[in-house]
Amino acid sequence: MKPEAVYFFGTCVVDLFFPEAGLAGIELLKREGVRVVFPRGQTCCAQPAYNCGYHEEARAVARGQMALFPKPLPVVVPSGSCAGMMKHHYPDLFEGTPEHAQAVAFAARVHELTQFLVDVLGVRLTDRGEKATVTWHSSCHGLREMGLEAEPKALLSQLSNVTVVPLKRERECCGFGGTFSVRYPDISAAMVTDKIADVASTGAPTVLSADAACLLNIGGALEKTGAAARPMHLAEFLWERTRER
Amino acid sequence: MSAETGATDFHASSSKALLDPSLRANFRRAMDGLMAKRAAQFPDPAEWNALRDLAASVRTRALAKLPELLETLEAKCVANGLKVHWAATTDEANAIVLAILRDHGATRLVKGKSMVSEEMHLNDFLSANGVESLETDLGEYIIQLDGETPSHIIMPAIHKNKQQIARLFGQKIRDAVYTEDVDALTATARRVLRQKFFEAEAGLSGVNFAVAETGTLCLVENEGNGRMSTHVPPIHIAVMGLEKVVERLEDVPPLLTVLTRSATGQPISTYFNMITAPRGPGEKDGPREVHLVILDNGRSRIFSDSELQVTLRCIRCGACMNYCPVYTRIGGHAYEAIYPGPIGMILTPQIEGLKRRHELPHASSLCHACTEICPVEIPITRLLVRLRKEAAQPPAGSKVLDAGGGRSRLEDLAWAGWQAAHTSPLLYRVMGTALRLFGPLAPRGLPLLNAWTKSRTVPKRAKRTLQDLVREKGIPDA
Ligand code: SF4
């Protein structure tokens, strides 16, 4: 059932580095006749601290976020990783605390953006863009925590002028992994180097993902090596090609 | 290794491994092959899910009754004529093996593949005590010749390519001529080993599954050397970790089928040995004595934590290594551990303690590839996070060895700062602006940013954040 309104949780990486992708996500939802609410006080899903084992710090931040989304509306997140954190790890994080029930109820309302567009809103897209070739990086948490695999492809396949050339190792990690990339920069570099070589071998000028953190990593490596391909968030790509001008 | 804490330096060893292009190529090629073979064995996702659910439930049931099953196993084995020994530590296990050999005046031992014997460093121990201990699994034989340790739990010599093995054989084996022909190399090893099987006074093997109800020791192998090691010499010593027990004979097929398919992409291994008793009166072959050494070495401590206990479900198929993007890049030796890769990252810190090994659980991008393919559904990623927490902020009453052993003041401070910035919307905005204005300049000296920018450009903070844009567009706040 199509809800009248949804909350949007933009994520800190989108907020600071890919704001256009966040706005595009909001526009895609609004076009379907959904009212989008963006609580201003939001910051981060708390995944960095959670993944590093600093669960007290993570709880403090997660608690603050949950309080900003009080109404029983869906919470739409333009990142498989942050959505996975809120959906699958908030209940664990608050296990044994008074907020556990709240965390479980909150987690049940969390949706990744593309899944929400396809599964809940059933969007139909009309391609208004020029012919384009892209490749797709399936981010690990989206893929393996949120089960995000068919939905982005379903959306891309609705675009009549877009050809998707798959990566050879589509399911392989790009080497970001949050603090992993700075704790073990050499291993992370080896991984992202292989990833951008894979991107280059597709010949596509654009690499899409539904996770801004991977785009930061892949995009940074592409730029450093002077490669031609550029990263773009799926939401931005979809919106730019389908908006009426 | 740091002299003060005994901690290993995974940082240095992994970075060094990355500099070896032939090592990286060997692993990439080998892991690609193993992944393709495994994937071909599980073409139907529904069947795969059903098989791993079943395998996981068998292991879960066994662990739920572990103390009881171990007692039953011991009683059955004794009734079948085996001698059963318990070892709390690897030192005890080594002493038990040596005592058995001394009892029989044995100085030559042939070994089938056993990771528990690696845990014991048995070869070094025995050779220091005047016993020749010879690996007969081809991969193990190769690395023993070269004085190395396994780099993979199923394919111990996977880090070597054909040319490297050819050179090694040429140098180390008498009468061996240099050849890169794999069949010829195998034939050379076979010729050497054949003779040793007949000379050895004792054989040693691992155990894949020990069936409590019947006292049966199951051994999975492809070369027949396992059968020779357990069957030809007059004494057979089997060593196993105490988690290897299963309840019933019917529990074996569901585990065997996921083990061989996950490990090597085979529907079943070439050999599957079931050992129940020594040679009986009137029988013409088989060992006269069979000993079973059951090793703890930290396993009961792991068992005592209800969440970490699932670590003991592992059937050592090695698939998590094959699928690990980190293992594939650095290979097994960089972990400086008996068990490398994802299973090693959760097992090694629990066995050796978090003071020495707190780095290991961080050596993962948490991509979940291991968790997705583990045939007994061990939530490896979740356990990595749990161990990171045990290293940094152990809960009261933690049972993990050296809990809190990874604590760093600097990191505590960093996360306190992170918390402050993300619990105050105002501070978050100020920091965001600071990042935009000074980000490209100021933090360049910071070690974290240096690490990032070795292979990537500095992330550029957008001029206007999403928060700015939604305000401009009048997106409602509530
Ligand atoms: S953890 Fe799972 S995948 Fe890894 S070796 Fe053990 S059983 Fe196999």
Low-confidence stretches of chain B: none
Q: Can you identify the CATH superfamily of one domain in chain B?
A: NagB/RpiA/CoA transferase-like
Bound molecules: iron/sulfur cluster
Structural class by SSE content of chain B: alpha/beta
Strand content range of chain A: 5-15%
Work out the largest interface and the residue count of each chain: A-B, 70 and 67 residues
Short description:
With 245 residues, chain A is α/β, with parallel strands linked by helices. Chain A has 13 helices and eight strands. Chain A has two domains: 5-120; 132-242, Rossmann fold (3-Layer(aba) Sandwich), CATH 3.40.50.
Please give a handful of descriptors for the protein shown:
heterodimer, A: alpha/beta, Rossmann fold, 4-stranded parallel beta sheet, 13 helices, B: about 475 residues, alpha/beta, 6-stranded parallel beta sheet, 4-stranded mixed beta sheet, binds iron/sulfur cluster
